[in-house]
Design goal:
Blueprint (H helix, E strand, L loop, with lengths): L6 E5 L4 H12 L3 E5 L10 E2 L7 H15 L4 E4 L14 H28 L3 E6 L12 H20 L5 E8 L5 H9 L4 H9 L10 H12 L10 E4 L7
Parallel strand pairs: 1-2, 1-4, 2-3, 4-5, 5-6, 6-7
Bound molecules: nicotinamide-adenine-dinucleotide.
The site of nicotinamide-adenine-dinucleotide (NAD) has 25 residues, from helix 1 and helix 5.
Length: 243
């Protein structure tokens, strides 16, 4: 029960990695405020549905979580939007969506959360970035650029707010078996189960990550075991680093 007495806000809580983070936090004693566009079916102390493209919603979210739970100790900025294609096949709507969900929402949520976390005695923010934000893959220009921005924001906030008792770190996963990855396979006409199995055979550990593999690392960074970590980018890449 590493998180007994701790109160956590998790975005993208209905998605693959978000659901795993909520379940693990909950199992380890945290009180959780879960947010997503649709929160029906999520088990948590507080459900705060909304769209992260709504600036006012993001600004108010940490305060709403704290009001519902009592304190704010942990924030996990997990929600993400993926837009595919090179810049020349990327529309204005793709740009606005990627920036809003992957960069502006975490910025607004962190800006509102850090003073609350500090006032409640200190805690941790964990951002879910991507290894593609560190070493871009092909045909996902905006996704890679926005995840790079989130990684940089994490490093900056880790530096700037360490003295306030708010640690800020990021998890940078490679491929994870979630709806985000599977929808990409389906769009290319591939059977997601077969494509996930085939991809797994190409990586050193013999399988791609499941959501729980990423959630465990996020929980480590949220926990006191990571008390000396801030501004760090934790790659979870199944031994598949290409640099
Ligand atoms: P997912 O699609 O299963 O979950 C993402 C969640 O974010 C969804 O529940 C979705 O509703 C929510 N979301 C998206 N836009 C939103 C909006 N405007 N308002 C509110 N909620 C919104 O994907 P996932 O794989 O679980 O992704 C979680 C995080 O992990 C994302 O930030 C993603 O970029 C990152 N990531 C995923 C992979 C992967 O291979 N799956 C790899 C690296 C990083």
């Amino acid at each position: 029960m590493r998180f007994a007495g701790r109160c956590a806000l998790v975005t993208g809580a209905a998605g693959g990695i978000g659901a795993a983070i909520v379940a693990l936090l909950w199992a380890e004693g945290a009180a959780v405020a879960a947010t997503d566009r649709d929160t029906r079916g999520i088990t948590a102390e507080a459900l705060l549905p909304g769209d992260l493209r709504d600036r006012a919603f993001c600004d108010a979210l940490p305060g709403a979580a704290r009001e519902a739970l009592g304190t704010l100790d942990i924030v996990v900025n997990n929600a993400g939007a993926i837009t595919r294609g090179p810049v020349t096949r990327t529309g204005d709507d793709d740009f606005a969506l990627s920036m809003a969900v992957n960069v502006e929402a975490p910025f607004r949520i962190c800006r509102a959360a850090i003073p609350l976390i500090a006032a409640d005695g200190g805690g941790a923010i964990v951002n879910i970035a991507s290894c593609w934000g560190l070493r871009p893959g092909p045909n996902h220009a905006l996704y890679c650029a926005t995840k790079a921005a989130l990684a940089s924001l994490t490093q900056c906030m880790g530096l700037d707010h360490a003295g306030e008792g708010a640690r800020v770190n990021a998890v940078c996963p490679n491929e994870v078996n979630t709806p985000m990855l599977r929808s990409g396979f389906a769009r290319r006409g591939l059977d997601p189960d077969t494509a996930v199995a085939d991809l797994g055979r190409t990586v050193p550990l013999g399988r791609i990550a499941e959501p729980e593999d990423i959630a465990e690392v996020a929980l480590f960074l949220a926990s006191d075991a990571a008390r000396y970590d801030t501004g760090a980018l934790y790659e979870v890449t199944e031994g598949n680093r290409s640099d």
